[in-house]
Amino acid sequence: MGNTKKYVPLLMGVAVAAGVFLGSKLNFNDGNEKIFATNSKKDKLNRLIDYIDYEYVDNVNTDSIVDVTVNGILENLDPHSVYIPVDQYEDNADDMRGNFVGIGVSFYPYNDSIAVIRAIKGGPAAKAGIKGGDRILYADDKKLFGEGINRDSISKYLKGEINSKVKLTVYREGEKELLNFNLKRKRVPLVSVDASYKLTKDIGYIKVNRFSETTYKEFKIALEELQDRDINTLVLDLRNNPGGYISTAERIVDEFLEDDKLVLITRNKSGEENKTFATSRGDFEEGKLYVLIDENSASASEIVAGALQDNDKGIIIGRRSFGKGLVQREMSLGDGSAVRLTIARYYTPTGRSIQRPYGNGNGDYYSDYEDRYRNGEMISADSIKVADSLKFVTPKGKVVYGGGGIIPDVFVPKDTSIENETLEYVSRNGFMSYFIFEYLEANRSDFNGMTLREFTDNWEPDQGLMDDFISYSRLEEAKIDITEYESELQLALKANVAQQLFGTNAYEALLNQGDAMIEKILELEQETVDQE
User: Fold this and answer.
1) Can 324 be counted among the known catalytic residues?
2) Residues 6 or more apart in contact with residue 136 via CB below 8 angstroms
3) pTM of the prediction?
């Protein structure tokens, strides 16, 4: 467990860094006329750009200069104030809205064609009968196969204005002729609740991957369905959740806290505070709660965990969270681009800030992730550094700490061996899903008519499939020997097959089998039963 390599946690840290720039909208009183008042500093920048435009000896793309300038300014503020260029804005907006306008398929360029991995449930493609394995050859007579195809250009033809129509020509193996589908583009959900199911007769499980505009509605539906199935305990999984809207996090917390309990404090540069309190609408105030967090749980995830921990509600399980306690507001720059600018700090109900220090620059800020591996924090709670000056006490007397993330009530170590880290990474980052798609291309008929229960109970990856993946991934060439992790590899392969055949709920349910944090919850529950 101690064989930690530097580059694997760094890879994971970069992945988290890309996801934590998601803030909220607060209503402090600074008006736009004050924020955007003309002054000599702004005139200076405008004049410099004009000089380059009209006087510089060579032709220069001043748009790119502006982008670099904006990024340079923001990098000197804090790690979470970011610039969103025009060409990235729509994807960012879709992610936060929790939907996009299109036909609703997940796909990737396979050989020289566009292969459908899965039609998204409820989307136009799924309703029309498009299936995994189909090849989209034409969209409105625009050729989508052959050399030079790429994901961005494909998305341009599949997405479009709401209610606009598109004619797809599709090749399906086993069909003698090409198939034609006339679809109307609709809003397609970007699901933020990955899984919702019963762990045991009494324990429900919900996994949330981000906090978008639609997350609360998704969460509420999942919670009500589990309550209808008579759960009395809930596991809320916020691992690898980079955050999102504060308002969404607050509404989810409200489901668990009694009326008028303090949820969150935000404070801007002038010291003005906003406080949020729980309301009467909570539906799980009496239920038992566990919250799972890890080193990749950030921002809104930490708001949820911190609010519950400070109000002595539930048990926080896992490892110290990321440590982001800054709030961003999105502001348009007038040309289709925008900035997400830090406008406030947030504090948990006991008054603690969980923001990590960032005064030494972004490089030092994100290397903290690596430092946690080096100092042993991932495998031992005793290695977590805390400062007595940042000690706070909850209403029931539990000691909690500020200064950098939420420290869980119950620590669960991570297997930091290079073999486990690599297997975990390739099974969750999409790499394994490409291999599985190719496997299904050759064996899809074996699964025709198979139900999820039949698949779960009866199908297992054989040694040949595991050997093929090891060869495909070139793990042996990288000197990574996973022979001691064959059962984990087998489970990961099975989960990835389940994802493409049955969706993310089946995927997460399989991967959770034997999961260390889930096992800890079951252990704690058994101890409770034994004491009764």
Assistant:
1) yes
2) 105, 107, 113, 114, 116, 144, 158, 168, 169, 170
3) 0.88
